[in-house]
Amino acid sequence: MPTASNGSVSLYYETAGDGDPVAFVPEAGLGGWSWGWQHAALAGPFDVVVFDPRGTGRSDAPPGPYDLETLAADLEAVLADVGARNAHVVGAGLGGAVALEAARTSTRVETLTLFGAGARGDDFDLDPLYAPLDDRDALRASLEGVLSADFLAEQPEDLLEGIVDWRADGDATREGWEAQTAALESFDATAWGLEVTQPALVFHGTDDDLVPPESGRTLAEQLPRGQFQPLEGAGHLSFVERSREVNDQIVGFLEEHALEE
């Protein structure tokens, strides 16, 4: 089982593919499973790196609260462990804030692709994400807060039950979730967004109930090379709902900004 270390904290990760490295940073409380739709599509032309943040799944869960600097340092540790001097970084929600922090403090981040990320910590209302890992009914109900009603109605029952299984097996406990979300208290990209000069593609579902789409647009406007891409009718986890569409756009974006040898 591959792990990276940031001090005494062990961080579980997986890699697949061969090409430019692409690292995925999950939303608060969600395990690396949440990027499965992208992992399958990008592994091959890219070297995909998926990990469980501290407090989640198979990674260590030291007592919180955590801060953005620590979570960004965890990402740096994973990239160093896989030997990635440079990488494209994809983040969702809190993971988007972590990616932004890493982009302004690390030399490893070449591009950013963000989903459901806001410009300020108080733009995030992530409470609907959490559900006790031993309560399947609550886990199932929590999907209604992060995925659109149309998407849920169209999906086969076994897929939705599979997501519940992944959540029960790979997400954060209440303590881990609270430790992670505490990192958003000081997040304010409007104060330093101009420092993030990497190309940035900012996706946002127009029916996102957890982070207002307008905050995503504001974030993109704060970034010197930011591009805002709304996804009509999609909820917070738009990369799950619109996986085929966004995967094509991610691949095009990453190919446009291929890493130099």
From TrEMBL:
GO terms for molecular function: hydrolase activity. Residues 29-242 form the AB hydrolase-1 domain. The keyword Disulfide bond does not apply. Keywords: Hydrolase. SUPFAM superfamilies: alpha/beta-Hydrolases. Pfam families: Abhydrolase_1. InterPro entries: AB_hydrolase, AB_hydrolase_1, AB_hydrolase_fold. This is Alpha/beta fold hydrolase. It comes from Natribaculum luteum.
